[in-house]
Amino acid sequence: MPAVIRLRRAVLAITVASAAAALGVSPQPAHAATPGFQLPFACDQNWTGSVRSNHNPPLSVDWTRGGPSTTVNQPVMASASGTVSLVTSAGNYGNRIVIDHGGGWQTLYAHLAGFNVGQGAHVEAGGRIGTVGSTGNSTGPHLHYEQRLGGTVVQSVLNGSAFVDGSTLKSRNCPSTPQPPTTDTGMTSFASADFNGDGKTDLAAVEASTAKMFLYPGTGLGTFGERTLIGTGWDSVGSVTPGDFNGDGRTDLAAVGVGDGNLYVYPGTGTGWFGAPVNAGNGWNSLDRFSAGDFNGDGKADIAAVGIGDGNLYVYPGTGTGWFGAPVNAGNGWNSLDRFIGGDFNGDGRTDIAAVGIGDGSLYVYPGTGTGWFAAPVNAGTGWNIMRDLVGGDFNADGRSDIAAVQAPQGAAGNMYLYPGTGQNTFGTRSTIGTDW
């Protein structure tokens, strides 16, 4: 999507009242007055909106903030107070949220990178609900925004005035309560494995504010030692996924280029560092929700990922050379889940996938069959939608796959908790293993 979208203005003309009077039809009950809608972005930020004449639906607004790199991952705020009536990833809208404001009024926020609220939650104006992304039928990072009255999209009214195509507005969405930071804090892009060769599960993670990658050496006790800097510039890639992709017995990192959509494999050295990336193919930006493991039972690390357009899970079989074979379609409906991690959670020696249900916040374990497919999910507990990031690994060295998770909104730092695996698709009582993650 261009940095600034130049589009034609659309005008809505409504003549229902006069037609009703001519036919002798009783007028319908009046809707409530327009809520005091504010720009759906952080206080004092400037955003440019565009209304395309061929946009579906008409009168919806696409918002950008300069170029793609200054638009993506920006926080999205509720335009007015209300109740979240829909949180879903289905269809061309991609990740979207609908908020009911009463009196027939709704707002819709689409193509989000992630969610900060669940269905049924009450939100205040200026409360963070998600993050700008490019999911669904989108050609670049932007926020698709609609104001609806009685189910029909109407011309947006923001800051007390009807929106004019191509306008740049400053957000006055400034509640008295403190806002989440507009610059991401904490750690992101988690990956776990024995990266330094000491037989214990370590953690690699990227500092969101600096794009530096750090290694947190595992102690084998469910905690991590003092971190060391192992790389910079990791904001140029996303969907970081660990696995021995080149077959040398060391864990590598695979990641997707933000600018070109190529998959890059960073070979592990076994000392906690990674070699120069190898280009393993293009078109990987059509996928998200990456996880890795030997899903087909051939002893080589595969990659599983969800198609952004269709919600299907695709397993890309590893060749053991740093490349991957043609994808195998492992089923549909996987875009109803988020926060994917791989691990042997049921103790049968096969790699499973665990993920959080977007609608209900439950953690579901999909047992691997060793054939590239997965058995029916097992519900491993509720309340997981409050966790920002999940990563799997045997952190306490008991031979079972555990989960480490950060409890915080997207873009903010929070505590990390260890959920010890039981080897039976469930997890024990959590313990705090770190702060400021």
Explain the overall architecture.
- The chain has about 425 residues and is mainly beta.
- It has 2 helices and 33 strands.
- Strand 15 and strand 16 form a beta hairpin.
- The protein is globular, with a radius of gyration of 23 Å.
CA radius of gyration = 23 Å
The global form is globular
**SS elements, strand count:** 33
Alpha carbon gap, first and last residue = 33 Å
Structural class determined from secondary elements: mainly beta
Residue share in β-strands: 35-45%
- Main beta-sheet strand count, sense and barrel state: 11 strands, antiparallel
- The helix tally amounts to 2
Which stretches of 5+ consecutive residues score pLDDT under 50? 1-32
Percent in helix: under 10%
Question: What kind of oligomer do you see?
Answer: single chain
Mean pLDDT metric? 87
Topology:
Elements: H1 16-23, E1 46-50, E2 61-64, H2 68-71, E3 75-77, E4 82-88, E5 95-102, E6 105-115, E7 122-123, E8 128-132, E9 143-149, E10 152-154, E11 157-158, E12 161-162, E13 168-170, E14 187-193, E15 202-207, E16 212-216, E17 228-231, E18 237-243, E19 252-257, E20 263-266, E21 278-279, E22 287-293, E23 302-307, E24 313-316, E25 328-329, E26 337-343, E27 352-357, E28 363-366, E29 378-379, E30 387-393, E31 402-407, E32 415-419, E33 431-434
Antiparallel strand pairs: 1-2, 1-13, 2-9, 3-8, 4-5, 4-7, 5-6, 6-8, 6-9, 9-10, 11-12, 14-15, 15-16, 16-17, 18-19, 19-20, 20-21, 22-23, 23-24, 24-25, 26-27, 27-28, 28-29, 30-31, 31-32, 32-33
